Amino acid sequence: MANNDQADQKAAGPRRRRGIYLLPNLFTTAGLFAGFYAIVAAMGHHFSHAAVAVYVAMVMDSIDGRLARLTNTQSDFGSEYDSLADMISFGLAPALVLYEWALSMLGKFGWLAAFVYTAATALRLARFNTQVRVADKRYFQGLASPAAAAVCAGLVWVCDDYGVAGTQIPWVVWGLTIFLAAMMVSNMRFRSFKDLDLKGRVPFMTILVLVLVYTVISINPPQILFTLFLLYALSGPVMTLVYRRRKRLNRRFHDRGGPPPAP
Q1: Positive or negative CA dihedral for 20, 26, 28, 33?
Q2: Domains of the chain: which residue ranges?
Q3: Torsion of CA 22, 28, 31, 32, to 10 degrees
Q4: Measuring CA to CA, which residue among 170, 128, 166, 159 is closest to residue 145?
Q5: C-alpha distance from residue 15 to each of 81, 149, 197 (Å)
Q6: What is the pLDDT of residues 71-101, one digit of tens each?
Q7: pLDDT in tens, 198-230
Q8: What is the homologous superfamily of the domain 22-256 according to CATH?
């Protein structure tokens, strides 16, 4: 019987070791903690701290995935854990921060806008998880939830830095919340920058450009970060309009029998 059991084990192949990879999930947990802290800080009306915590969660989220790919420690557990952490850090946290900061002044319209944003984040993450193996890695379909959360946190941080209370601009915040929710569930394409080669060699000037970028951001982090991510959120509609215009021009030249215009 023992020989038969050993033969069955050899035929089945080596037994898989149980456990999870510590390093990438450590950064995922740090991002989850930052998102939870953002909610707690917003409840205490420490809105600038809440905004910074959302950005910290975004940095942690960008590190864990790339670190898992670089160290070959990707797993199904890590992917599911990352999605759940993203739902907290980039769905619930920004919605509750905006609600405590400004949307609570609008009553039912306020909490409904916060719910729409949260639901849009969940739908965006679910669609991403189902299309991760077939989608073009160069583009996101719909605005990524970390970028949407960065716009929300940037608005809160900038206004708090200039002494503008959210209760003074509740309808502006409401409109931005609905806009970001619509961008997340839209079919518009946004550059993912996942095609950047982080393991290859780069020219020396690339490092100098990175130093200049860090220097510019450090001049006024709230304004610079909010402007960058807001422009990124607007890049999807602009790219869609340009693509549709180019498609109409190509169709028009094709109908006339002439060559298409140069891109």
Answers
A1: positive
A2: 22-256
A3: -100
A4: 128
A5: 24, 42, 35
A6: 887 788 888 899 999 999 999 999 999 999 9
A7: 666 777 777 888 888 888 888 889 999 999 999
A8: CDP-alcohol phosphotransferase transmembrane (TM) domain (1.20.120.1760)
